[in-house]
Amino acid sequence: KELCAEIFDFCILHRLNPVFQCCEHLNRSLVMDLETAKQHHLTRVNVKPQLSAGGALAVAAYNTFDNVCMVMDIQADAGVDIGDTIIGMHLKPVVVPVRPSIENRKIGEANLVMAYSRFPYVGGPRAIYERRI
Q: Tell me, what's the pLDDT at 65?
C-alpha cells in the first residue's frame, strides 16, 4: 500500500500515467485510470485483482484509483518491473534495459528492473540513424 502511494505521488509530480501489471493468474492484465484507457482506446477486461490472483500491488492500485479500470494490454514508453513480473510485453519495441548505478537493485526482497523503449533500427549497412530516445 505504501509503495503504491509513493508510485502515485511520483507519477503526479512528473505528470505520468501510472499503470500496474497483474501477475500471470490474470494474464498480466493492467490496472489503470479509466479516462486514460478511453483516451488511448485500450481494450478493457472484466476482472478485479486479488492477492492470490493479480498481486498485492495491483490490489492496492485498484483500490487507489478514483476511476479504475482493467485493460488487456498497452504499449508503454518505459516501465519499472518490481518483483520479476516481466513487464516487457507491455512496452513498445525495442526495449532497452536501464541499469541504475545503485548497488542494491531491490525493493525489499523484490528485484528491480527498469527499461525504456526506442525506435527500431531499420535498413542495413548503408542506413544512417539519428540518435533519439
A: 96
Q: What are the cell numbers at 106?
A: 531491490
Q: How much is the pTM?
A: 0.83
Q: Is the peptide bond before 94 cis (omega within 30 degrees of 0)?
A: yes
Residues 6 or more apart whose Cβ sits within 8 Å of residue 48? 54, 62, 70
61 to 5, 33, 64, 82: CA distances (angstroms): 8, 10, 5, 14
- What was the pLDDT predicted at 117? 93
Give the DSSP per-residue string, 42-92: PPB-----BTTBB-HHHHHHHHH-SSEEEES---BSEEEEESS--GGGGBP
